């Protein structure tokens, strides 16, 4: 018997973000705090869903949003503040940076491919229903008595 190798595909999981010689912040697209996603939605109008695809497609607003989120995380660490306080310090509309200084590196991880499922045909489904019905009938006839008796003293005469 031969062992099948499980196939894996590469999935974009995040970005390493830095501007010039500034700190590198890793933004994992699979892990956000709830307040970060709310700040993203309120300040940028963008949803977390599809953000990675928009960034890789070159959507400048999505790229700015990612860099802004990285900046908010840096501010939180530097000042010990909340996401909302960091967003007040660094307003999205006013946030700007030299695009030539931006270093943005996508990070991929291997994710195992799910095994493909086969859908049963009508014929297979009818065989399954027939087998299930046969088991139910056999189980019902074996467990149900042909006549019933009442317990002594339970007569309603």
Characterization of this structure:
With 157 residues, the chain is of the alpha+beta class. The chain has a domain at 8-112. Helix content is 42%, strand content 17%. It is built from 5 helices and 3 strands, in the order ββααααβα. It has helices at residues 34-44, 51-56, 60-79, 83-89, 122-143; strands at 8-19, 25-28, 102-112. It has a 3-stranded antiparallel beta sheet, with helices on one face. Helix 3 packs across helix 4 (83-89). The longest helix is centred in the C-terminal third of the chain and has 22 residues, at 122-143. The radius of gyration is 30 Å and the shape is globular. The model is unreliable at 1-5 and 141-151 (pLDDT under 50).
Brief overview:
The protein has 157 residues and is α+β, with helices and mostly antiparallel strands.
List keywords for this structure.
globular; alpha+beta; three-stranded antiparallel β-sheet; disordered N terminus; 157 residues; 5 helices
| Widest sheet, order of strands | 2-1-3
Number of strands: 3
Biggest pleated-sheet summary: 3 strands, antiparallel
Strand percentage, roughly?
15-25%
For the terminal residues, how far apart are their CA atoms? 72 Å
Q: Report the structural category.
A: alpha+beta
Tally of alpha and pi helices = 5
Low-confidence stretches: 1-5, 141-151
